[in-house]
Design goal:
By secondary structure, this protein is of the alpha+beta class. The chain folds into 2 domains: 91 residues, Winged helix-like DNA-binding domain superfamily/Winged helix DNA-binding domain (Arc Repressor Mutant, subunit A), CATH 1.10.10.10; 109 residues, no CATH class. The protein is built from 6 helices and 5 strands. Helix 3 packs across helix 4 and helix 5 packs antiparallel against helix 6.
Length: 210
């Protein structure tokens, strides 16, 4: 298994370096030999029957392209530095230029997060505002009518009517009020998702046209 997966676009700098490094048969022979295991400059030159300067030139190109690396550095009996070259463990993929998928995902993920936060806010604070407005309206409805000279019977009738109205209002508030806010929040959430879906379809249409 390759440790790294490298995706290249045709024409970019890295792809050009790789193409130049592999344009020679000598470079391909070096890669084939290193596929069998690490080897030094001297070993590769002797195996290929090529001058050391020629092999060194291709090794430098392969190193710059990232196709090979220095696996180990040893020292000879005479104290000279000896580098052992090996293939890099990576998978190269050459693909045409595409739209930046990662930025596109982040863009619409942020939009979804905004819609989600706004929906939670509506669900959390909606009942407070609806209750405040309903209480204000109820206070106006419960305001007693001015009576010039109410009798005891009139006051009893009036109090009974007020109590009945409060009871009816409380029941209506318990059943209709709390359920209305989640409905509004759900509608807002679904509407936000619909907008995001439309934008995604538009982005896909633009990408397909290119």
């Amino acid at each position: 298994m390759a440790e790294n997966i490298l995706v290249l676009e045709p024409g970019d700098e890295r792809a050009q370096k790789i193409a130049r490094a592999m344009s020679s048969q000598t470079a391909n022979d070096i890669l084939q030999q290193l596929g069998e295991g690490p080897a030094s400059l001297t070993d590769i030159a002797e195996h290929l029957g090529q001058p050391m300067n020629t092999v060194k030139y291709h090794l430098d190109n392969l190193l710059e392209a990232g196709l090979i690396g220095i696996a180990e550095t040893k020292y000879s009996v005479k104290g000279r530095e000896v580098k052992l070259y090996s293939l890099t463990n990576q998978l190269l993929i050459v693909a045409p230029r595409q739209s930046p998928v990662r930025s596109l995902i982040l863009k619409y993920a942020s939009l979804f997060a905004i819609v989600l936060v706004a929906t939670i806010g509506i669900a959390a604070f909606g009942p407070l505002f609806s209750g405040m407005f309903a209480t204000t309206g109820a206070a106006e409805n419960f305001a007693p009518l001015p009576l010039s000279a109410p009798t005891v019977a009139d006051r009893e009738v009036q109090e009974a009517g007020v109590m009945a109205t409060k009871a009816a209002y409380g029941a209506a508030l318990d059943t209709a009020g709390p359920a209305a806010t989640p409905d509004i929040a759900l509608a807002f959430f679904l509407g936000g998702l619909l907008v995001i879906l439309v934008l995604l379809c538009y982005e896909a249409w633009l990408w397909k046209r290119k």
